[in-house]
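Pipeline run #58 for the internal structure catalog. This entry was flagged by the ingest filter as a single-chain record with no existing model, so it goes straight to prediction. Upstream metadata was stripped on purpose; only the residue string is passed forward. Reviewer on rotation: M.T. Logging verbosity set to normal.
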Amino acid sequence: MLSRLLPRRHHRRLLQTVLRAGAAPEVDLHQRLCSSSAASSPSLSIWRRKKEMGKEGLMAVAQLKRLAALPPAGAHPRLEQFMRSHVSRLLRTDLLAVLAELLRQDHVILSMKIYGVVRKEIWYRPDMYFYRDMLYMLARNKKIDDTRQVWADLKSEDVLFDQHTYGDIVRAFCDAGLIDLAMEIYEDMRSSPDPPLSLPFRVILKGLVPYPELREKIKQDFLELFPDMIVYDPPDTLSDVDEEFKF
């Protein structure tokens, strides 16, 4: 019927247009899935590769720390000038090594600055392990606002943590006493498309021992998902331990 109403060349163009329109959502979905899987792949992660710092990187770390100490802390004009003139010119390996060293030293201000530089580089790709280590450092230093910024960034890049990494991050924030953030990340873990695993729940439950009400809630979630498993409840007091082992 279509071939009778339209000339052959118009018929061909119309079919090509319809096929392209129908395939577009599938292509877009495929690209999003590939992007998320690449961000979570150890083999594709530049952040997990060995980070050896060269001479330029060592000099950059020393100068960054010196300039960051100038008042106002972390906002001195000379620090900003050094970021533009030297840090932005570092090779990829040196830049990543500088960030890794600043994370190790728990230097929050400089870590956040280098984090911003890395994300603007042409070679940058979303990386689960990159964001994981940033969140670990921010949890150790109890930085709520910076954590929310980093979390918003990783969400905008469709980064998806695996279940084990989710459990470790939630535990890190529990250990730091940032329970509200820990529970927000836990809820994100529950909505993840990955199938739940028992070990991350056990890691979280252990971190929630000082918070019995929250622990009970997570425990119920665990038992609903894994009804055949048992959760060990720690004793309320040391006297309970003595009674348990009393002969």
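catalog note: Confidence is low (pLDDT under 50) at residues 1-11, 17-36, 238-247.
catalog note: The radius of gyration is 25 Å.
status: ready for reviewer M.T.
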